[in-house]
Amino acid sequence: MKTTKRWVSLYVENQVGVLAKISGLFSGKSYNLQSLTVGETEDPTVSRMTIGMLSDDLTFEQIKKQLNRCVEVIKVVDFTDAATLMKEILYIKVNCCSLADKEEIFRIAQVFKLDVVDYRGETLVVECVKNDDENNEVIALFNRTFPNRIEVVRGGNVAIERA
Amino acid sequence: MEIKGTELFVKALIEEGVDTLFGYPGGQAIDLFDALYDQDQIEVVLPRHEQALIHAADGYARSTGKVGVCLVTSGPGATNLVTGIATANYDSVPLVCFTGQVPQNLMGNDAFQEVDIVGVTRGICKYAVTVRDREELPRIIKEAFFIAQTGRPGPVVIDLPKDIQQAMGTDAYPTTVNIRGYKPNEAVHMRQIKKAFQLLQEAKKPLFLVGGGVNIADANALMEQLVDKTQVPIITTIMGKGAVDTLHPLYLGNIGIHGSYAANHAVTECDLLFSIGTRFNDRITGKTSEFAKHATIVHIDVDAASISKNVAVDVPIVADAKVALEALLSVVDKKQEAQKEAEECKKWKERVLYWKKKYPIHMQTQEGLTPEKVILALNKRYKDAIVTTDVGQNQLWTTQYLDLNANKKLLTSGGLGTMGYGLPAAMGAQFGNPDKKVIAISGDGGFQMNIQEMATAVVYELPLLLIVFNNGYLGNVRQWQELYFNKRYSSTCLRWRKSCERNCMDASKECPKYTPDFVQLAESYDAKGIRITEESQIEEALAFADANTKGPTIVEVIIDPTLNVWPMVPAGNTLDQMIMDC
Predict the structure, then answer these.
(1) What is the pTM of this model?
(2) Cα(B208)–Cα(B275) distance, integer angstroms
(3) Is A107 on the interface with B (CB under 8 A)?
(4) Distance CA B462, CA B397 (A)
(5) Which CATH code, of 3.40.50.300, 3.40.50.970, 3.40.395.10, 3.40.50.2000, is assigned to B2-170?
(6) Does B347 touch chain A if contact means CB atoms closer than 8 Å?
(7) B180 inside 8 A of chain A by CB
(8) pLDDT band at B337 (very low <50, low <70, confident <90, very high)
(9) Considering its fold, how many domains does chain A have in total?
(10) Which candidate from B130, B181, B303 shows the least CB-CB separation from A72?
């Protein structure tokens, strides 16, 4: 069966151990978890998680049921085919930049609408807020252009249904 | 009024109707035990090991339908519960386990006897929580009892730090529960029920497959009515055994790797598999791609996650077995045609009943003292009994030969397969059913895993009948070694001693004496024991046990070490490719 990328938005109790419970469910049942973000919502007793995973149809149905089964889970919403806004923050630090490298970074930033947010000597930091796939492309581009000189940190995706 | 956490704990248990608590004290539970000292509504039972303690609570819960309650201390007390929690989780047994915990200001500091039991049990229980605020204690206990016994029942762990136990706070215990993330399904989708019933009417080769869900929902009488009214043959899983009287003419036996010929062939040939309360575990399906290949599958289960997990089904119905069966019966009652039997159905019924008659399960050996003969004797002698088993050959033979009906219950660790379950579960069952005959059927391996509970059974004067089939081996593994590992009996001989050859291939008369001597062991515990080696001694031994009404009796049954469990479906085969015997 075909394995594809899926997204779930999870409303959970904002309590100690809930993150461990959800991530433990994925590892314990050998589900392929790709990204998980969590944060408090407008209601401080509720947290919301955005979870990205790779699975086939059958496993995905099972994952949703298993999530629903957790007492601490309030609601499971399938975002895979829903109209959503989804973004991930990404920082790329580039070390040992020559003048030409710096010019290249600013050109890339202009084309891809990235922000250069820090600049000290030979090191620049680029900030990028895009969706999952676009961020993958940006990282690939930096890896090709500045091999072995970049440092990447990603925040994971957050998503919300469109208005 | 403000009361201590421990007092609220006792009050909560009384409000929940708890009459028996299985507890083992320790440093972080001492306050709770102190609070229990002053009351007489709850009997506090002290087993000799926490693992046995939780199996006892499990046996109590399975045999009474009530919540089993455990209370242990932190650290090792808590971790000793782990196997029992997983056992109960697999077999959907309602338990509430209280574990003492170090005070909150020490938590995380690797304090003496500190273990993150909530973290340890997260994946093997229905819900686990640490109480971090004295004011939340009443709500958490209330919710725990609700979660444990509703929906698909299961074990709940409440971790109680010592400072919460000692803190003063509210004395109010809530009467209602509202958990926004937990709303067990209480209704049933009528349209799905009608659809399922229509399929049942249209089918030419219909078959009921019933799992533990029917026993748990106490829907056995309804199940029998449905079978009688529809005249559809029925098979069960090990956990479902007893869903209808095992002597019912339409009951074909257990399905699975040691199931009956009729059951395994019926499931392979049926065109409608109407399943209730089973999760299609790999022990019953064989090769899943070939399982019930010709059948449309209806699946009723209280747990949505159990539906289409292992086997894809055509008509899913999420409901409690009792609610679903009531709904089904209401539809059946309306349709008089249900009575009318189609020609094809009649032929199907004749076919499966022919199988049942032609290929009954019997042991290959009919000579001498065999487990089959002992279990048949139990069937005849005890009309009103609860039988527990250990795990392995003793369990498989019991599920093959034991008769069950409305007056008899079987408690067995079907999901996790926990050795050492039999004796403590029998104790728990006896506490919950003081007037019933309670029998534990074990092997010599499993019996030794919780053998220390002989003391508990003696001091509480539990008149348990403890059958120990002694073949000197871990028999089920030995069977596999004989069949698939070229008779390399690696670590399965329990007679082996240092003086033996390292790689001994088989037992013989010259083997060292078995240890322990179960009869002397019984006597040293101030219990009774008898050893039998001949078929003719069975009745005498049971009479000897029945005469001992003030304590447990071990009946050690010496059996041939080479006895195997037949029939058997070899791993990876389809269900109809059975080895009947070798």
Answers:
(1) 0.96
(2) 6
(3) no
(4) 25
(5) 3.40.50.970
(6) no
(7) yes
(8) low
(9) 2
(10) B181
